[in-house]
Amino acid sequence: MGNEFRVAAVFSNHMVLQRDKRLRIWGEGADGEHIVVQCAGQQAEGSIANGQWSVSLAPVAAGGPYGFSVRCGGEQIEFTDVWFGDVWLAGGQSNMEWSLMHAAEGAEELPEATQPQIRLLQVPRNEYEDRAAAAEMEWKPCTPVHAAGFSAVAYFFAKKLQPEIAVPIGLINCNWGGTSASAWMDMQRLMADAELRVYPDEFAEQVSAFDESLYAEVRHRYDGAVEEYHRKEEAGASKEELGRYPWPPPFHPYSFMRPGGLYQTMVRRVSPYAIKGFLFYQGEGDAHRPVMYAKLLETMIRNWREDWQDETLPFLFVQLPAFGCDGDLDGEQWPLLRESQRLVTNRLPHTCMIVSLDCGEKEDIHPKRKRPIGERLAITALHEVYGLPVQHRGPRLLDKQTAGDRLILTYGDVGEGLQSSGNGQLAGFEVAGADGSFVKADARILDRSKVAVWSGQVKQPLYIRYAWTNWTEADLANSMGLPAGPFRDTVPN
């Protein structure tokens, strides 16, 4: 099996190859055999050593379709309908995984989902595998059938982006619901860091008492609970009748939730397939350590960029929306994690974050509206990656001044002016005096770029914060409807 000539599974018919970059093509075979790769008028040759081969092609401009062949001795593998364009990898957990057919916009969108210049690749979701057992994958044209089960966020991203840049778009779907960012990075990086090794240490403790003889029964009961939940859901049961979704699944040593696991079984299967950049929507699975998340995500980004051998690869990601956190509406786990996400953009170049506060649902961790998320990622890419003059972010706080018993905030990126859903009245602001005790505040838009904030309970406001609860109805936006992001003044101890 190890001597069988093959091309890495990420290459197939209908694929999009990254334009304007040197491409690495790789696979397996018998030692000493000669490899010849031909595509777009180029030919590259190499030899197989230690069961592996790799060759590279010079950069090619956008276009197609091309043929693509790989020859080894008397064997030849041919791929057809190959295009050069821009390839984006969509990673994360369930909100990136969430399929188009289950999105709020799905029923309306699917009949329109024939997009010949968009191609889709689903990386198989495998908990644990050896190389021989690796599931196959295949690039597919974007059609209603193929798009239905694909990431809705990634689909709406590509649909918005493709007409603007007029080149083919390839989407690599590499995500799994319920996962920590620690599952998507090299275990060695986690173990080498005194703080981050808490993730593998915690998992080791969770499986320390694992009993294989009991696991089958525990798993059977869990699967039955999930089936019952879905049966009630399909029968139209109310949220009270449904209760909470059974989670988490029983732990076992090869769980998909294990640190470093999906990095090996999924990410490594597609790196270093040349790409334009990353899309990422994750964080819910790490809300129990919100402050540490900044370091965790930053380390993961560095890991991925090193694997793709490009420290400038754009990394566009979604800040978590508002969520009721199972009744803990006023808690601050999610505000702290949102803050950690924002800190990553300050620390790492070529990272961009979109605000999604207004897209959340109080009682559902899976907001059904995915079009705004995908389109905001797209306009961010248009501005930050492609350099086009589009308004891509919501109001950004520039200045804070005290005026008597009020704080006056000045915002940039307001477009034609600030707006809200409350006829100029704003929700989500809190102020504090010298004692650092925050209370809900009144707020009103003063003019195109200024907001006044005050409270009858605080005569001399010194500190302010915005959208600093798990669930928030904060509604400040610019004229394009893009929301302002959460922030807080740090109160001295």
SSE map:
Blueprint (H helix, E strand, L loop, with lengths): L5 E2 L8 E3 L4 E6 L5 E6 L2 E6 L4 E6 L5 E10 L2 E18 L1 H4 L8 H4 L5 E8 L17 E3 L1 H5 L3 H14 L3 E7 L11 H6 L5 H9 L5 H23 L4 H4 L18 H10 L6 E5 L11 H15 L7 E4 L14 H15 L3 E4 L16 H14 L11 E8 L2 E7 L16 E4 L6 E2 L1 E4 L4 E5 L8 E4 L20 E2 L5
Parallel strand pairs: 2-8, 8-11, 8-12, 9-11, 12-13, 13-14
Antiparallel strand pairs: 1-3, 3-6, 4-5, 4-7, 7-8, 9-10, 15-16, 16-20, 17-18, 17-21, 19-20, 21-22
Task: Give a summary of the structure in a few sentences.
The chain has 493 residues and is an alpha/beta fold. The chain has twelve helices and 22 strands.
Structure description:
With 493 residues, the chain is of the alpha/beta class. It is 25% helix and 25% strand. The strands form four sheets. Strands 2, 4, 5, 7, 8, 9, 10, 11, 12, 13 and 14 form an eleven-stranded mixed beta sheet that branches. Helix 4 runs parallel beside helix 12 and helix 10 crosses helix 11. The radius of gyration is 25 Å and the shape is globular. The N and C termini lie far apart (64 Å). The mean pLDDT is 95.
For the sheet with most strands, the description reads: 11 strands, mixed
How many β-strands, per DSSP?
22
Q: How far apart lie the N and C ends?
A: 64 Å
In which range does the helix fraction lie?
A: 10-25%
Give the structural class: alpha/beta
Number of helices: 12
Shape: globular
Share in β-strands = 25-35%
